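Structure (tokenized):
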């Protein structure tokens, strides 16, 4: 339902975002049947992708009251149903709730765009051929950590939508509780917190940082991130597989 299409250029190893009203479909089929045979790990990763769409749209500097409604609804729904849908055997009622969440998140980010999680995930996925939802899951709490101070009230609303009792808590408590819930969600879904590659070099981190900074999703991140910040995040989440 969005105006986004992501194309992988397999020669340059770059994922390019095409953003145009012409990409918005005339008709979208919201059907649970194809999801019934999906691997549960893919359900976990795509569910976390939908959550990331909603959170990034909610804190985007292009958000609006209309995108907020869809983003918060998606956040509530993923928070309530994703773990259940992944741990139980395929269940159409639960998968429908996730499809609905994903559609709400699509309406939100189609109009508010995304942020640094997606810019970095596009970069990682293109260069290292990694699963998009898995990259987002690993990056989400790390990016909240660096973005939080730019829009603390927005993150407070997100935490409340995720059922955390932080409506009147100090910002630091809100930030810690939100990061903990997102990390716990990832752990409950069996998604790792690091990306393991055979050989990690400065050149890889530099290339990833460069492509992240020119990704269109970076424009709507709630604050600009420096090359050092982006590079530092890649340094942290990418681990050489032989070293652990
Ligand atoms: Fe995504």
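Design, position by position:
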């Amino acid at each position: 339902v969005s105006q986004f299409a992501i194309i992988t250029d397999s020669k340059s190893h770059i994922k390019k975002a095409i953003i145009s009203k012409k990409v918005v479909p005339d008709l979208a089929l919201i059907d649970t049947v194809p999801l019934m045979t999906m691997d549960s790990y893919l359900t976990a990763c795509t569910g976390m992708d939908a959550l990331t769409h909603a959170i990034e749209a909610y804190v985007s500097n292009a958000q609006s009251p209309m995108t907020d409604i869809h983003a918060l609804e998606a956040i509530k729904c993923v928070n309530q149903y994703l773990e259940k849908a992944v741990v139980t055997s395929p269940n159409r009622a639960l998968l429908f709730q996730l499809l609905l969440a994903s559609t709400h998140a699509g309406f939100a980010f189609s109009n508010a765009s995304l942020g640094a999680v997606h810019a970095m995930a596009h970069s990682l996925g293109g260069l290292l051929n990694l699963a998009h939802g898995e990259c987002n899951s690993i990056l989400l709490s790390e990016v909240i950590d660096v973005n939080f101070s730019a829009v603390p009230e927005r993150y407070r609303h997100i935490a409340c939508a995720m059922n955390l009792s932080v409506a009147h808590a100090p910002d630091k408590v809100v930030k810690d509780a939100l990061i903990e819930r997102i990390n716990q969600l990832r752990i409950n879904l069996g998604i790792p917190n690091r990306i393991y590659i055979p050989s990690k070099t400065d050149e890889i981190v530099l290339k990833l940082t460069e492509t992240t900074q020119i990704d269109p999703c970076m424009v709507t991140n709630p604050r600009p991130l420096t090359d050092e910040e982006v590079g530092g995040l890649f340094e942290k989440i990418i681990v050489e597989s032989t070293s652990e």
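Reviewer-requested clarification: The mean pLDDT is 95. The CA atoms of residues 22 and 73 lie 26 Å apart.
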